[in-house]
Every structure is written in structure tokens, then in C-alpha cells.
Amino acid sequence: MPLAVIDHAQVTVLFRDHREAIIRYLLQRVRCPDTAQDLSQETYLRLLRQDALPHADNLTGYLYKTAERLAIDFLRYDLRVNSRTEELDDSLECPRVQPEALAIVRQQCEMLLDAIAALPSQCRHVFLLRKIDELSYADIARQLGISEKTVQRHLVKAMLHCHRRLESAV
């Protein structure tokens, strides 16, 4: 199909004559008055940017076809954008530790450290060797020169002491 040269004055007259109808046409497609206005302006600009049009014999049809393609492009883009966004579920909790929970954990750690510090020396030493150094009862007994039964007693005493201190704070 041969291209016909069209000047800006013809495009301006064409758009002025069909502007309201184009906006109504676009409004039916996109269901938003502001978007319909924007797309009608983009239609006008697209025609102005072209030096020659393939459908010079039916400029009105070409105007509507351009508007329709812009509406389709907009709807496709809108669909892609909206399909990527999901509604947030208010029942979901943030995976990060919240400040209130962090403050509670810090307070509990301080109470636990105070409870460990208040233990008798050998009892504290056995507790730390087991819980921090992860030594077995036999290794602790050998290192401190005490029986495994004494290691068990010290651990039970330390655990009960720490548990009571934390319970009394609550």
C-alpha cells in the first residue's frame, strides 16, 4: 500500500473533529477517564510524529486503529503490573525479630547471665564446660578431677537455679 504524505494541519483537524469520540471509544476500553484522555493525546502525538501514513484514504479509521492499539498496549501493561502485585496477608508476621521481642530476649539473656554469675564457682564451671564448650560428662569429670555423678549434680543444680531465676522474673 503506498504511503501518503500528511501534514500536521490535517492531523490537527482530524483530531479536533474526532477527539470526543476517540475519548469515549477509549473510555469503553480502559474504563478510566484520565487514562482515556492520556491515550487520546498519545494517539494525536503518534499521528503527528509520522510524515506519511499508510491509510491516507481512511484517516479516521487509522486514527481509531492507533487509539485501539494504544489501549491494548496499556491494558497488557496494566495486566502485567497488576499480576505481579499480590494483596498482603495481614496475618503474616515479619520474619525479622521485632523490636519488642528483641528487647524481651535481651532482658532474658541478662537475667540468665546474672543467674549464671550467681552460681557457686565449681557449679558455674561445670555448667559452662557443658553448655558452652559442649564437653561430655566424662571429659568434664576428668578435667576437674571429680566424678561424673558430681558433674550431673552440678548441672542439675545450675539448670534449676537458672530456671527459677527466669521464672521469678515473669
Automatic annotation (TrEMBL):
Residues 110-162 form the RNA polymerase sigma factor 70 region 4 type domain. It comes from the Bacteria. InterPro entries: RNA_pol_sigma-70-like (IPR039425), RNA_pol_sigma-70_dom (IPR014284), RNA_pol_sigma70_r2 (IPR007627), RNA_pol_sigma70_r4_t2 (IPR013249), RNA_pol_sigma_r2 (IPR013325), RNA_pol_sigma_r3/r4-like (IPR013324), WH-like_DNA-bd_sf (IPR036388). Residues 14-77 form the RNA polymerase sigma-70 region domain. Transmembrane segments: none annotated. Keywords: Sigma factor, Transcription, Transcription regulation. NCBIfam families: sigma70-ECF. Belongs to the sigma-70 factor family. ECF subfamily. This is RNA polymerase sigma factor. It comes from Methylomonas rivi. The lineage of its organism: Bacteria, Pseudomonadati, Pseudomonadota, Gammaproteobacteria, Methylococcales.
